[in-house]
Amino acid sequence: MNPHAHITRRGWCPGVRRPMATGDGLLVRLHPFAGRLDARQARLIAEAARRHGNGHLDITARGNLQIRGVSDETYPDLLALLDREGLAEPEGDGPHRLTVLSPLAGLDPLDRCDTLALAQAIETAAGGIEGLTAKFFIAIDGGGAMPLAEVGADLRLVASDNDAVTFAMPASNGQHWIGSSPLCRAPQAVHAILSGFADLRRKGVSEAQRLRDLAPDLVWELAARAALDPAIELPAGTAALRAGVLALDNGSAVLLALPFGRCNVGQLVQVADRSERFGSGEIRLSFTRGILLPMIAEERVPALIDEANRAGFITAPDDARLSVFACPGRPNCGSAQTMAPGDALRIAGSCGDLLREGATLHVSGCPKGCAHPGKADLTLVGREDGRYEVVLHGSARDASSIHLSIDEIMTRLLPLNSVDDLRPAFAEAPR
After folding, report:
1. pLDDT given for residue 429 in this prediction
2. pLDDT at residue 6, as a whole number
3. If you count DSSP H runs as helices and E runs as strands, how many of each does the chain have, helices first?
4. Rounded CA separation 126/128 (Å)
5. In what order do the strands lie in the sheet with 361-364?
6. Could you say which of 185, 234, 320, 379 would form a disulfide bridge with 362 (CB–CB 3.0 to 4.6 Å)?
7. Which strands form 99-101's sheet, in the order they lie side by side?
8. Gene3D superfamilies given for it (predicted)?
9. Which helix (H) or strand (E) holds 44?
10. pLDDT score at 13
11. DSSP states of 237-252 as a string?
12. How far apart are the C-alpha atoms of 267 and 33, rounded to whole Å?
């Protein structure tokens, strides 16, 4: 198969074996299980990105790592290197990695089950099901310090008390709880749901690409097929921390954020070095588009934070940039109509008080909304004329009633002090 086939198709999910063409060259995405790398692997990836790409990397909202700016000439050597190191995904058209976890998996004292073991069991039981799209994924949530409610998974499993797992799907008002299962039977229940969904697609009963898009009656049919018990509805919980220090039973974990997930090779090498000097040599990519370093002795945390700040990482949980999501934008993405990161930083730099009050902003260069599949208090979607469609309390896929230039948007944002001020400020276009 031609590794570059279909690379311009909407909804494409790139990997190592099948990269995607973007505005700055080919994008190669690595999908390490549980987002885990060791320091040696991180250095190898950084050197590969420098030698075969343009030196820029992204951490995605699923804890994957993207090498940008790869050329047709350098790609074969990059593929051979990553394949040799065991960093290329298996052959096939299905999900490159079926499960997404908290970066604290296996370490979080608040988790109610071993999420690493559960994820591995699910990958083994259901990872080979044919007929699932590459974008399909399951969030495994141990109920601990970093909930996964916002990651946009097709299916979310949340550990509850008494060795039970509750199954949820995204809904317009949050989570739709469809049933529960004993922990020991959860992998088989997942297999039943996913194989049933693949059957519905194969037989033409549904054309839904994602489980989350399935008609409600078919959802209940799949829940019955999996013999799920009645749902245990769990509280919504709080949003996951995006930067800062988390306490563990053995030391601390330091979560380093990056503006919009963008990283350079120097930063990745520095992270590898710090993981060995301050911790266990392990690096965990986070669905918050950051990097978590576990097993840091409490007395070493201040020095690590200081070095990370000087290297351009975000370490403070109240940094205004953490409330802003943005895609690579023009010219880095061929689909983008606007320079989304620059506009997002402009807003974050001028409207920090509004963002620190809890407002969330998503600046997307096009309607695909890759940087943030969920809703934000204010979503801006790039247009061909360089302006933005403005969506209040919605996603990049939702309809907009007005479109404005970035200057007009800034004029309306600057006086605002709270989320409640957004609706009147953007209620209608200027007369």
Report:
1. 52
2. 35
3. 11, 20
4. 6
5. 324-326, 361-364, 376-382, 388-394, 402-404
6. 379
7. 99-101, 138-141, 155-160, 164-171, 174-182
8. 3.90.480.20, Sulfite Reductase Hemoprotein, domain 1
9. helix 39-52
10. 84
11. -PPPP-SEEEE-SSSE
12. 22
Helix (H, G, I), strand (E, B) or coil at 131: coil
Burial class (CB in 10 A: 0-12, 13-18, 19+), 203: exposed
C-beta of residue 115 within 8 angstroms of C-beta of residue 102: yes
Region class of 244: left (phi > 0), else alpha (psi between -120 and 50), else beta: left
> Which tokens hold the place of 91?
């052959």
pLDDT of res. 2: 43
The answer to pTM > 0.85 is yes
Angle between helices 340-350 and 406-413 (to 10 degrees): 20
> What is the mean pLDDT of each successive set of 10 residues along the chain, which is 431 residues long?
41 86 94 97 98 96 96 98 96 89 96 96 92 92 92 92 89 80 97 96 93 89 95 81 94 95 96 96 96 96 97 95 93 91 94 90 93 90 96 92 94 93 81 42
Residue found by looking up tokens 């993981």 in the block: 275
Phi, psi of 68 (to 5 degrees): -105, 160
Q: Are 54 and 66 in contact (CB under 8 A)?
A: no
> Which amino acid does the sequence have at 350?
S
Q: Which two tokens stand for residue 80?
A: 């051979």
Enumerate domains of the chain plus CATH numbers: 20-84 (3.30.70.3340), 103-225 (3.30.413.10), 321-425 (3.30.413.10)
